Amino acid sequence: MDVYVDNVGGDHLTAAIDALRPGGRIAMVGAISGYNATGPVHGPANLFTLAAKDATLRGMLVTSYLHLFGEWIGKAVPMLGDGSLHTEQTVVEGLDNAPAAFLGVLRGENIGKMLVRI
Predict the structure, then answer these.
(1) Domain 1-60 annotated CATH 3.40.50.720
(2) N or C: which terminus of the chain has fewer CB atoms within 10 Å of its end residue's CB?
(3) What is the pTM of this model?
(4) Contacts for 31 with CB less than 8 Å, ≥ 6 apart
């Protein structure tokens, strides 16, 4: 893997570091797996692997790039249309299952966005 955008942290970030190629880059946008932690959040134990791979881990705030939003939309819409860019989502059936699915998002269990079918 050459580039990874991390929204989850924890085990997902650990796996991404292991899969990263030499010179790879990681943009750390969030760490949702630790948002509701009641104690210290443990980070990846393999951070030094980034140095061995001459790789980069850098924080990223979407708000720092709002000036590029129009350009992104112009590029993303055709890619979504032709299937070269796709999203993943977790689908649950019934409103009664929404709370458990949402808590799964906070634990990093669900990928992408969550959809509840009522």
Answers:
(1) yes
(2) C
(3) 0.64
(4) 6, 7, 8, 9, 10, 13, 41
Q: How far, in Å, CA of 86 to CA of 69, rounded?
A: 18
pLDDT digits 0-9 by tens, 64-97: 999 999 999 999 999 999 999 887 777 888 999 8
Instruction: Tell me what pLDDT residue 109 has.
Output: 75
Q: Which two tokens stand for residue 103?
A: 């808590």
Burial label for 60, CB within 10 Å (0-12, 13-18, 19+), is: middle
